[in-house]
Structures are given as C-alpha cells and as structure tokens.
C-alpha cells in the first residue's frame, strides 16, 4: 500500500451526437442561468443553484462481444453510441457532458461496472472545465472490474480555472485477475490566457482495491497560490501534472524504454510496485502531458494487456 499526500511529480463544450438525438438539444448553462434570473422572485426553497448529473454504466460478455447492459442517466451526462473500433471484444464509450463545464454546486456521479471477461474503454471528447465559483463542485467516480475483465479509463485533461473549488473522488474495485489502465491529467489555471491558479482549490482522492485489499491510496490538495505550485518538491512552476496507473508488472528492459521516452516540456518517470505500475509527469501544457501518456500507452498496452494500442478517433477531432 502506498499513501501519497502531495501533488504528483471524467468533457468538451462541442455538441456531439448521442444516439438518435443531439447534445445541442439539451439546455445550455447560459439557458439555465437565464431561467434562474427570471425566477428570482420564487421562494428560496425552490431555487437550487446547482446542476446535478448521474451516469451509470454496466457491461456483460455475450459470446465474443462486450455489450452495454445498463446506460442509466440523470441530468446532463450521457454516453454516445458504443463503438467497436478494435472488434467486438472491446467496447468503447465516449462520456459527454453537454454543458461543457462544471460550476459551484454541480455534482457529477459516474459509475461503470465491467462484468466478467469484458473489455471496456471509456474516454471523453475534450477537456473537462471546472469554472470559478463561490461554492464547491464535486465529481464522484466509481469503477468496478470483475474477474477476467479489462477497463481502460482514458479521459482527456481536466482544467481547473482560477477560483474554482473542485473536489474529485475516485474509487476503483478490482476483483480476481481484473486488469486496469487508468490515467488523469490536471491543468491548474490557464497559462495561455495569462491566468495563474491564484485562488480556489483542487482536491482529489483516489483509492484502488483488489479483492478488498488496498493497493493505492492517494490524497491531493492544492490551493490557489500554494507554495507547492513553484516549489521544487511540488509542481516546480509547471501548471500540469498527470498520473498513469496500470495493473501488472513490467520487465526491466521495457521499464527502461518507457523511462527513455522524451517529449519537450515534459518531465516524467515510472515506478514499479507490487502488481501496479505508476507513471507521473509534470508538463508545461496539457497536450504535452497527454502526448507522453499516449506514448506510454502504446508501449504498455501490448505488454500488459496483450493488445496493440488503437487511439480512439475522438482524440484526433
């Protein structure tokens, strides 16, 4: 068990097709805010300054095919039509949050259950943006992976605007020989717009268990203008940090090849723990951190999961 209490070394704003409809037919955040203004004279009990959303997914193996067997949603959180870019064994879903951003009081609850012998890949069409707000916004992610199953959680970056109050909790439960490939990318502030993460806070919790035994326990908290933003023992002046966690163990030769990967503007390294490979990086831009993770994924997926890496087409749009 490894416990970290320091900052390390699950969506775009475009409308996307969802089944037979369009995300654009859902009310936008500006529409919601406008309607709130029109209802300012209503009793305070009827006014709820938040936009909760839930998404519950489950998958089962039918013959050679991984099939979605549950797609329940509440509020503005959806998945697009499932894809089989790699054949019937691997089911890919793109999680879409049509409002394009998360503000104070919002809560996203996402759960996914990969049943026995399934292979599930979950990603997103763009960055998740957490806006400046007076109140706290939450995301709760729960992943369950049954024996013989593989789950890949590969979202694009999370952007924490200055003044945002973002709190994320992730719980992953592996059973038997279940396999996991997980990453997250966090960008604090918007350097390209001249915005430093000078206020607000980002807080994240991540727990991974196998058959109830804790494998990974991590807590992060960074506040605006925190000394760790520039400290050499923290983010060292870099606005982006990323983490990759993969079940399994690498041989020494491939581990060294991964360590030799170089991308300008990225400083990263890997550690092999018992049954879990950990990679972390600091980067000057989210795109560079993502490029480093994808390069690792291309090397690690065949070695640890037994399948060549095929990037989702949504990453190129």
Question: Unreliable segments (pLDDT under 50, ≥5 consecutive)?
Answer: 1-48
Order of helices and strands: EEEHEEEEEEEEEEEEEEEHEEH
Describe the main β-sheet briefly.
10 strands, mixed
The radius of gyration is 20 Å
Query: In terms of structural class, how would the helical and strand content be classed?
Result: mainly beta
Q: Tally of extended strands?
A: 20
Helix percentage: 10-25%
How large a portion of the residues is in β-strands, by DSSP E? 35-45%
Mean pLDDT: 88
Q: Counting H and I runs of at least 4 residues, what is the number of helices? A: 3
End-to-end gap: 39 Å
Overall 3D form: globular
Overview in brief:
With 317 residues, this protein is mostly beta strands.
Attribute tags:
mainly beta; about 45% strand; about 325 residues; disordered N terminus; eight-stranded mixed sheet
Could you explain the architecture of this structure?
The protein has helices spanning 29-38, 252-259, 286-305, and strands at 2-4, 17-18, 21-22, 52-62, 65-74, 78-79, 90-96, 107-114, 119-123, 128-130, 137-145, 150-154, 158-160, 165-174, 179-188, 201-210, 213-223, 240-247, 266-273, 276-283. The protein is mainly beta and 317 residues long. Strands 6, 7, 9, 10, 12, 13, 15, 18, 19 and 20 form a ten-stranded mixed β-sheet that branches. Strands 1-17-16-14-11-8-4-5 form an eight-stranded mixed β-sheet, with no helix packed on it. β2 and β3 (21-22) form a beta hairpin. The model is unreliable at 1-48 (pLDDT under 50).
């Amino acid at each position: 068990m490894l416990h970290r209490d320091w900052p390390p070394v699950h969506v775009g704003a475009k409308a996307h097709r969802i089944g037979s409809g369009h995300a654009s037919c859902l009310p936008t955040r500006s529409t919601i805010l406008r309607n709130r203004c029109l209802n300012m004279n209503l009793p305070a009990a009827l006014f709820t300054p938040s936009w909760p959303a839930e998404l519950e997914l489950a998958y089962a193996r039918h013959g050679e095919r991984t099939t979605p067997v549950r797609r329940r949603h509440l509020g503005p959180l959806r998945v697009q039509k499932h894809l089989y870019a790699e054949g019937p064994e691997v089911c890919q879903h793109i999680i879409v949050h049509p409002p394009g951003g998360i503000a104070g009081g919002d809560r996203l609850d996402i759960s996914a259950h990969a049943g026995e012998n399934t292979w599930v890949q979950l990603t997103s069409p763009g960055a998740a943006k957490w806006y400046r707000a007076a109140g706290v916004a939450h995301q709760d992610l729960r992943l369950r992976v049954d024996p013989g199953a593989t789950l890949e959680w590969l979202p694009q970056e999370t952007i924490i605007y200055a003044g945002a109050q973002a709190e994320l909790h992730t719980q992953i439960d592996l059973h038997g020989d279940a396999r996991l490939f997980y990453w997250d990318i966090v960008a604090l502030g918007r350097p390209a717009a001249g915005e430093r993460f000078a206020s607000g806070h980002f807080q994240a919790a991540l727990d991974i268990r196998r058959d109830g035994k804790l494998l990974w326990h991590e807590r992060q908290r960074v506040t605006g203008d925190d000394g760790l933003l520039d400290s050499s023992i923290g983010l060292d002046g870099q606005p982006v940090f990323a983490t990759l966690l993969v079940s399994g163990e690498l041989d020494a030769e491939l581990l060294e090849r991964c360590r030799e990967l170089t991308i300008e503007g990225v400083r990263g390294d890997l550690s092999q723990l018992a049954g879990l490979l950990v990679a972390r990086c600091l980067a000057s831009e989210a795109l560079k951190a993502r490029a480093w993770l994808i390069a690792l994924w291309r090397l690690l997926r065949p070695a640890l999961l037994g399948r060549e890496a095929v990037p989702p087409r949504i990453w190129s749009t």
